[in-house]
Amino acid sequence: MLLRKVWESVSTRKCSTSKSSTRPIFMDSSSLGVFDRLPSDILIQILKLIGPKEAAKLSCVCKSWGLLVSDNRLWIYFLQHQQEPWESIFFGETTLISGYPFQTLMSDISFMRIFGQRAQVPGSVIIDGGSGYCKFGWSKFACPSGRSATFLEFGNIESPMYSRLRHFFATIYNRMQVKPPTQPIVVSIPICHYDGTENAKASRRQLKDCIHQILFDLNVPAVCAINQATLALYAARRTSGIVVNIGFQVTSVVPILHGKVMRKVGVEVMGLGALKLTGFLKLLMQQNNINFGSLYTVRTLKENLCYVAVDYKAELTKDTQASLEIPGEGLITLSKERFQTGEILFQPHMADVRTMGLDQAVALCMDHCHYAELAGDDAWFKTVILAGGSACLPGLAERLEKELRALLPPSISNGIRVISPPYGADTAWFGAKLIGNLSTFPGTWCMTKKQFRRKTRFNMMW
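The structure assignment produced for this chain is given below.
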């Protein structure tokens, strides 16, 4: 009955407005017709029921309806019922919306306008290609639409970088069954060339320019290229912190302040990644006469049964036996192998790897950040975000936090927090999704072909 009265009120005012061209479009701003006697909270509930499109139409009836419909509570409710979590939407629309450098917008923000702009954003293709596995899909989708082994898509390793990357992107576009000119793209750049030397800078610039050149040669309208660590940080709804990215072959510890990688502080790198963890589990299984069919089986066991012990010595005395049914191979049982696999992140010598442990690498990075005094407050580097498939091992965040508190002095260790990958192995992809769905996208986040050519010509001049 209330909804019927809403539309009776709307239609009456539309008719009366159309009959006289001399009368203003908006009626008396104090009048809501038959709804004048209802509290505003009840009216907001009615607007929630009729939905965003019909609610927006009511804003054209009179000033009073317009003021009521523009209430941020209403549009926050509508945004909360989108696929993306409200916390991510709020973080993006108040922090990332202006692009880099970030300017947080907290006052006079209209979520009604944001809702309308986000509805018109065309969406983007997202390709998160690491050295091991690639995740790809649409920013408007809830999750990646496909995954593949990067090395299978990357072309001949002996061919030039341009040919290999072009083969890679062309293959992903074919898998997605989409034509490159139709959508902008958000692409992740693997963490590589870690230091701040001129040679490393030139190598990073060359890789980024090569990615842009290939995508523009494929006629992609706009390209947003961001490194994986920064995307993982955005997915955790932060712009500053330390990202521990456990990649396919190496683990990198990356300090990021206000969205910028602090290479001058130092990016720590361990020569130990997901491939080594899988290989070590394989070795343990062979030593204990546990049969398996392939390396894929070992990887499946690692992902489903392995974890990191908070106290390694105490864990050795416990019964940790667990089993997993592998199709075609039957039931496979693991015991101490379950936590010994992840332990090499903290004791690499167990796998004959000559590198510092993960806790030592992160502590060293924090120590450098502390003494660099890059910000007035030390809190920016005390949040550690884990990223990468192997970073999803249960217990890893708790163990790392415990070890850091033991290694660092109280002046640095107070306030440390280690966060597990917010979206599992797809964390970087979800960071890209957050950007691709911003109400201002592509905007300042993307580079167009014209901008790239202008930039290239300018660099050649110098």
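Interim note for the steering committee: The CA atoms of residues 307 and 339 lie 5 Å apart. Residues 198-217 form the longest helix (20 residues).
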